[in-house]
């Protein structure tokens, strides 16, 4: 059950991605020229997406994949090209519409169905694999754990997600970011140590049988994110 803090943060993210920064994200997720700072973010996101895709099986025929927080759908399309039935969910109607337009006729042997909604909604059904790229980085660790527990109950094989790794550099960067006028800020991310996430997952009875396997960090200028793979055994 989503908490009040999760619901509040989700509302803030919807406002940001669907209104405040929709045009910026449309440009960032395309091949249009961007500033030097945004170019590092684009490169970092491309590298992280490639890493997450490398952790999925090359043949996904007959498998259901949830792209949680799909944005404009780049990862969803690549998974569908491997034959997956992909459910792509995001809270931003603007980004979902853009993803639908970009994906048309480009998903190969699989399929992609785009939805505006909550990535944790059980109505989306069960999955073989769940991928959440940079969709949980804005939430408190307890809310991240609840999200993972909810998804794990409907997932057969693996959950791949990213988090903002806690480091001295990132904490300093966030401190500087607080000096930016409030109206120009993007939603704050919540750094967390990998050891903390592993402890929370390992100590949650709802995630019994799930184990962290691989981890990978991408640092590209103004983009820093770390992926963690959870596998059911």
TrEMBL record:
It holds the Pfam family Cons_hypoth95. One of its GO terms (molecular function) is magnesium protoporphyrin IX methyltransferase activity. GO terms for biological process: methylation. Residues 133-232 form the Magnesium-protoporphyrin IX methyltransferase C-terminal domain. The keyword S-adenosyl-L-methionine applies. InterPro entries: Mg_prot_MeTrfase, Mg_prot_MeTrfase_C. It is an enzyme of class 2 (transferase). CDD domains: AdoMet_MTases. Its EC number is 2.1.1.11. PANTHER family: METHYLTRANSFERASE (PTHR43464), UBIQUINONE BIOSYNTHESIS O-METHYLTRANSFERASE, MITOCHONDRIAL (PTHR43464:SF19). This is Magnesium protoporphyrin IX methyltransferase. The lineage of its organism: Bacteria, Pseudomonadati, Pseudomonadota, Alphaproteobacteria, Acetobacterales.
């Amino acid at each position: 059950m989503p908490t009040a803090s999760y619901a509040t943060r989700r509302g803030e993210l919807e406002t940001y991605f669907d209104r405040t920064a929709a045009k910026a994200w449309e440009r960032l997720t395309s091949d249009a020229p961007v500033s030097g700072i945004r170019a590092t973010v684009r490169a970092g996101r491309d590298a992280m997406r490639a890493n997450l895709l490398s952790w999925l099986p090359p043949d996904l025929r007959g498998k259901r994949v949830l792209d949680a927080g799909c944005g404009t759908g780049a990862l969803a399309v690549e998974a569908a090209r491997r034959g997956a039935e992909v459910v792509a969910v995001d809270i931003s109607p603007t980004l979902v519409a853009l993803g639908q337009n970009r994906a048309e006729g480009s998903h190969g042997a699989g399929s992609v169905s785009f939805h505006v909604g909550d990535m944790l909604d059980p109505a989306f059904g069960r999955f073989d694999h769940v991928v959440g790229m940079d969709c949980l980085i804005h939430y408190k660790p307890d809310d991240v754990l609840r999200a993972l527990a909810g998804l794990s109950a409907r997932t057969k094989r693996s959950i791949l997600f990213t988090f903002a790794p806690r480091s001295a550099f990132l904490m300093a960067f966030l401190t500087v970011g607080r000096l930016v006028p409030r109206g120009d800020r993007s939603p704050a991310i919540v750094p967390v140590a990998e050891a903390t996430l592993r402890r929370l997952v390992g100590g949650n009875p709802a995630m019994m049988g799930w184990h962290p396997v691989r981890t990978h960090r991408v640092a590209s200028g103004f983009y820093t994110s770390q992926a963690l793979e959870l596998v059911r055994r």
